[in-house]
Amino acid sequence: MTTSAAESATEAEETFPYVRQCPFTPPVQYDQMMEEKLQQVTLTGSGLTIWTASDYHTIRQILTDPRISASRKHDNFPFYFIAPPEYRTETSFIGYDGTEHTTTRRKAAVTFTNRQVKRLRPRIEEIVNEHIDKLLALDPPANFHRIFSLAVPMTVICELLGIPQDEHDFFIKHGTLLLGGHSEPEERQAAIVEVNEYVNNLIAVKEKEPGDDLLSRAMAEYAASGEEYTKRDLFNMIRLLMNGGHETTASMLSLGTAYLIEHPDLKEKLIADPERHIEGAVEELVRIATIGDTAIPRVALEDIEIAGKTIKKGDGILCLGLAGNRDPEVFPEPDKVIFERGSREHLGFGHGVHHCIGAELARLEMQIVWTTLFQRIPTLRLAKPFDEIDRKEGAVIYGLWELPVTWDK
Amino acid sequence: MPKITYIHPDGTTSVIDVPIGETVMRGAKLNGVNGIVAQCGGGASCGTCHVYVDDIENAPLPPMHGVEDEILYETACPRQENSRLSCQLPVTDDLDGLVVHMPETQL
């Protein structure tokens, strides 16, 4: 059967995920969807028909309803790309429910509490400054995304996990394959195998010589709770934290930096009084970009009445944070970044028991970057019009493939 | 259904029947009891569902794990001997009659 280009275009428009109008403006389809709160869409890749939730309160309700599962094992789990079988089973706690979720997440969560994260501030400041030095040592223009945005969070998460510096490139490459929109299914599968082999070796090292790192602490937490871990538990956890800990923050660093450059009034306001504005600025940039818009998938375990509709047992659901974060009743003038409202009530880090484990770490990294970057490079600007920069449409974590910048030497 | 008593900072009380399987936090949130914010929705990440538990020595609560312990050092109102995160307290029959005091502020 042949399909004309026009028909293909229509088809492409009709399958989900839809294309954002700009990285900070939801797809046009969202206006209508937000009025309906819950609606059915057809997914790209899997072709499944699933529900999308696009209303702030509906999303929060779904994400705290124990009748709704995060397990990837369900047949209708809303994958919108071809997922290797490991994506269903080797998920670690992001794909667990109930007690299994709580007990597994706990092993890692001790490292990410606000109190623990605050202790990292001096070291993160050092890492940020070192990477600004690296950028400034180059002749502009340079790709900020690769040199800075990917490298800073990767350095932080590797130090936290106990992974040596010289392995960072390996993880950047594999992280992009696992979460990026440009990889092939075979590449994703091979990446899982390679990362697992690496982490397997690392576990052997830490078992012999525990260090001051997450992996060693997680093993100690297992011992303290009288539970035995398998290597599979640990390498799935590490792979989850590695992906969650760098790709996401990297995306936000590039998007937020571009947003501030493109909005000089906000940038100047932030530079003038970072102490007053930085926390609000970070919350608002996370809200306006909501990079995990298509990254909160669920499946109903029972028939559930919600927002006047019935989600049937087994139906897949995607909670569209980008839409929920535009609810004008919760965030008046939702398309504007308003530092002063600086609310943590947004859905940018999710909601409920699966709320981003690394939210405090990500916040701290962004706060440090945006208080330091423009102070040190006041002339930092884009080296290419923002609307010509290649975006990660259709990726699990939204972002930019590059961010060409320049500055006065 | 187990009854949980929530005592507000001004001394007023809300007595709520909380279904088994919910948490002490969700019992408040689902019934419009102000005083528990639960910003993260139960992820043990934000420390805004802090409560002080009456007679904690005799309350049949699950043991406190490392994460909850860590977070309780960072709550808006100071931690006391009887501090817990209400999102980490699943409601069971044993919890019938539990009394929790809500702090002056969660933020």
Percentage of helical residues of chain A? Answer: 40-55%
The helix count of chain B comes to 2
Average pLDDT figure of chain B: 96
Oligomer: heterodimer
Ranges of chain A where pLDDT stays below 50 over 5 or more residues in a row are 1-12
Give the termini distance of chain B in whole angstroms. Answer: 31 Å
Q: How many whole angstroms does the radius of gyration of chain A measure?
A: 21 Å
What is the element string of chain A, with H for helices and E for strands?
A: HEHEEHEHHHHEHHHHHHHHEEEEHHEE
Overall outline of chain B:
globular
Number of strands of chain A: 11
The main β sheet of chain B shows up as: 5 strands, mixed
Largest sheet of chain A: 6 strands, mixed
Uncertain regions spanning at least 5 consecutive residues of chain B = none
Summed over residues and divided by their number, the pLDDT of chain A gives a mean of: 92
- H-E order of chain B: EEHEHEE
Q: Considering residues with a beta carbon less than 8 A from a beta carbon on another chain, report the largest interface and each chain's count.
A: A-B, 28 and 20 residues
The residue fraction in helices of chain B comes out at: 10-25%
What attributes characterize this protein structure?
heterodimer, A: 409 residues, alpha+beta, 6-stranded mixed beta sheet, 17 helices, disordered N terminus, B: 107 residues, 2 helices
Task: Provide the fold topology.
The complex is a heterodimer of chains A (409) and B (107).
Chain A: H1 5-14, E1 15-16, H2 29-36, E2 38-43, E3 49-53, H3 56-63, E4 68-69, H4 86-89, H5 98-109, H6 114-118, H7 121-136, E5 142-143, H8 144-149, H9 151-161, H10 168-179, H11 185-208, H12 214-224, H13 231-262, H14 264-272, H15 274-289, E6 297-300, E7 304-306, E8 309-311, E9 316-319, H16 321-324, H17 359-376, E10 381-382, E11 404-406
Helix pairs in contact in A: 7-9, 7-17, 9-13, 10-11, 10-13, 11-13, 13-15, 13-17, 14-15, 15-17
Chain B: E1 3-7, E2 13-17, H1 24-30, E3 50-53, H2 66-71, E4 83-85, E5 98-101
Parallel strand pairs in B: 1-5
Antiparallel strand pairs in B: 1-2, 3-4, 3-5
